[in-house]
Design brief:
four-stranded mixed β-sheet, mainly alpha, 57% helix, 2 domains
């Protein structure tokens, strides 16, 4: 039976509206943070400063802020202490955090491209909130959680009050102008909401991060302007040799979430190794959409599945070819930590 056109449209409109609904991006925690910050600076009593953070920032905060605090173990007392300890830092980063909406301007277009590449993309919310310098982006279930004080920064951010090694690490990070690369950062974290978690080896963590880097670059056309992407191509054989030696262990210190005080003198080279594995894997695949689905849906908590993926990429075979030719790359010696 053919339905009358008005009735058909009425039935279809809810679906159409749902399909076209913009991804939820929340930024209201940022304004709440700065209002709380001003109140904290004007309050002489230490206990009351903590209470102000709890009452004015945390309690009325978004679910995303509460998730960010859970994932990074932030507390009201930590916020209050940081607000007083780093006045130059907060003053320099404050105007940059106002750019959250502008920095997300391409998100709907990027997600449409992501959906074309990966049609079963599941929706996720995105929250920009101010943390205490432990992440520029992370996830919890279907929530992308952006640390605005990091992700929206640039070279103007004053890190002089921060303790080492955080000061040196963040100087490099802010000099890479992360705010200008916000589209890629949002996509990287969005990919993570589609992936399985892992608690396994270096190989498992590195491949999971590398796939997110590769897919985010494929969609946005950008990658972070960080030293790891300049250092990596010039030292790939050394990186690969050490990765082979370390990949089955669970020590991430030289590879991920670290400062430059590691074996390479460059932080986060696990991202580079994982990115190159994903890139080489894709070079072998005739069907990009099917290959992207396999990468995203890989069981990252299964060491055998991850090892099979790495072998299929062919990235390790280059090291074996070097060895067969008698060209054994030198593994960099660990630097003083």
């Amino acid at each position: 039976m053919r339905l009358p056109l008005p009735l058909m449209l009425a039935l279809l409109l809810p679906f159409a509206a749902s399909a076209a609904a913009p991804t939820q991006v929340r930024t209201d925690d940022i304004d709440r943070f700065w209002a709380t910050y001003d109140a904290v600076l004007a309050e002489p009593d230490a206990a009351q400063r903590v209470a102000l953070v709890q009452q004015r920032y945390i309690d009325p905060g978004s679910p995303g802020l509460h998730a960010l605090m859970k994932v990074r173990n932030y507390t009201a007392a930590e916020y209050a202490d940081a607000m007083l300890a780093w006045p130059r830092f907060w003053s320099s980063v404050r105007p940059l955090t106002a750019n959250a909406r502008q920095a997300s301007a391409t998100l709907e277009r990027d997600l449409a491209a992501f959906r074309r590449l990966y049609p079963v993309l599941r929706p996720a919310s995105i929250t920009y909130a101010v943390g205490v310098l432990r992440t520029g982006g992370t996830t919890l279930d279907n929530q992308v959680l952006i640390g605005a004080e990091m992700a929206l920064g640039d070279a103007s951010v004053d890190v002089s009050e921060l303790p080492e090694p955080l000061r040196s690490r963040l100087r490099i990070f802010y000099d890479s102008r992360p705010g200008a690369n916000n589209a890629q950062n949002n996509l990287h974290e969005y990919v993570h909401t589609q992936q399985r978690e892992t608690t396994g080896s270096l190989a498992q963590y590195a491949v999971r991060e590398g796939v997110a880097e590769y897919v985010a670059e494929r969609i946005s056309g950008r990658r972070p302007a960080l030293p790891l992407y300049a250092y990596g191509p010039l030292h790939e054989s050394e990186i690969r040799a050490r990765f082979i030696a370390d990949m089955d262990g669970n020590d991430l210190d030289n590879w991920l979430y670290n400062s430059a005080r590691n074996a390479f003198g460059v932080s986060d080279l696990g991202y580079y190794a994982g990115y190159r594995i994903a890139q080489e894997y894709m070079h072998q695949q005739p069907d990009e959409r099917a290959a992207v689905a396999r990468m995203i849906e890989l069981d990252y908590d299964d060491p055998a599945a991850v090892r099979g993926f790495i072998e299929a990429s062919g990235w390790l075979r280059a090291a074996r070819a070097d060895e067969a030719a008698g060209q054994r790359p030198a593994v960099p010696e660990a630097k003083q930590r």
